[in-house]
Amino acid sequence: MDFEWNDAKRKAGAANDSDVPLEDRYQLLIDAVQDYAIFMLDPAGRVASWNSGARKIKGYSADEIIGRHFSLFYTPEDVAADKPGRELALATARGRAEDQGWRVRRNGSRFWADVTITAVYDPSGALLGFAKVTRDMTERVRLAELEHAIELSAQIQSTREDEQKRIARELHDDLGQQLTALKMGIAALEGQLTASNESPAALAATGDLQRQIDTMMASLRRIASNLRPPMLDDLGLTAALEWLADDFTHRYDAKTTVQVHVDDATLTESASTAIFRIVQEALTNVAKHAHANEVRIAISASTDTCTVRIEDDGRGAEIDGERKPRSFGLLGMRERARQLGGFVLIDSAPGAGFRIAAHIPLSAIQSDQARTR
Length: 373
Ligand SMILES: Nc1ncnc2c1ncn2[C@@H]1O[C@H](COP(=O)(O)OP(=O)(O)OP(=O)(O)O)[C@@H](O)[C@H]1O
Ligand SMILES: [Mg+2]
What we know:
By secondary structure, this protein is α+β, with helices and mostly antiparallel strands. The protein has 3 domains: 33-136, 2-Layer Sandwich (Beta-Lactamase); 138-228; 235-373, 2-Layer Sandwich (Heat Shock Protein 90). It has helices at 5-11, 22-32, 52-58, 62-65, 76-80, 83-94, 138-196, 200-227, 230-234, 237-252, 269-290, 329-339, 362-365, 368-372, and strands spanning 36-41, 96-104, 110-121, 127-136, 255-260, 294-301, 305-312, 343-348, 354-361. The two termini are 49 Å apart. The model has no long low-confidence stretch (mean pLDDT 88). The structure holds adenosine-5'-triphosphate and magnesium ion (MG). Residues 281, 284-285, 329 line the site of magnesium ion.
């Protein structure tokens, strides 16, 4: 809670704490509370007192609100369902009513409120009214929603990787096998046609079919390895990155080098995938945006952090913190690093190349065996 005791004391015109009468002290205390709306309702539900927390949370000044019915704070749906009336009835019957729900500020905006209404009686047992304490929980609710969204996005990411891995395997094992069988069948046919020497046209056609199947197999391999680079499983991250860099050098005529100063055998599967995907997206960006002559990929480690750098000498870009609405590549990189407890720094300027550094805690990416070694 925020207490503005000194302000309140000044308002009461008191030089020392002891100059303030006890009753006024309570009033000052309640008025000084900023994080809670604390106020009284009369037995009919009209606002009878107001504190600065209430003004801050609900937006009304004391002059505007005192005397008005507290149903003003409820949403039209809740008013139609007589929620305010039911809460007062419950507080009267049980002494206290608690609720969490949407409430409405003076400006019409809604906030998520945690509300307690307590019935107040005089010594003879007559109902004096209700003490109402309201806390604005909107930020907490937003934080919980954000945490939930982050968890969900991690789950989606990993489900996606699993699914891609499965499709890649199916493509390779199922379709790949069938194409191989088809190719062998045509080769046998070709043998027969060559031996009989009866139909040169049919023989030429089998040659065309063979070439088409080769092209299909190459496409299949390319699609499957984009979904899940097989060398990542078979040979590890370093070899997979070298393959990626080689392919990039030849395809885009930009000299691409890889230096890995981490033992990739110690990395978890999800860490290898994340690093591979970060580099893959960075290279796609170089191809799309950079016009670079040289790209350097380097993975290094300090005592507790692994750093993945992808740097090009291309035309760079303005880094203004504003994300282009349809750009997801850098966002995806940040998300992958974040899921491993790390973060991504980007450094660039027009004409000055583009530098990406993903910093990831080693503890999050090393397998259990590696850590106990
Ligand atoms: N290597 C680079 N050189 C120059 N500019 C770059 C480079 N990488 C990224 N950028 C700039 O940063 C922007 C954002 O990149 P990001 O990868 O997020 O999106 P995108 O490549 O435009 O689209 P997407 O990745 O969603 O297909 C790019 O549009 C580009 O302007
Ligand atoms: Mg991109």
